[in-house]
Amino acid sequence: MKMRNHTAVTEFLLMGLSHTKGLENVLFVFFLAFYLLTLLGNLLILLAILISSNLHTPMYFFLGNLAVFDIFFPSVSSPKLMFYLMGQSRTISYQGCASQVFFYHFLGCTECFLYTVMAYDRFAAICHPLRYTVIMNHSVCTIMTLGTWMGSCLHASVLTFLIFKSPYCGPNEVGHLFCDIPVVLPLACADTSLAQTVSFTNVGVVSLTCFLLILTYTCIVISILKISSSEGRRRAFSTCSAHLTSILLFYGPVVFIYLRPASSPWLDSVVPVLNNIITPSLNPLIYALRNRDVKLALRKALIPGVHSCGA
Question: Which keywords does this Swiss-Prot/TrEMBL entry list (predicted)?
Answer without folding.
Answer: Cell membrane, G-protein coupled receptor, Membrane, Olfaction, Receptor, Sensory transduction, Transducer, Transmembrane, Transmembrane helix
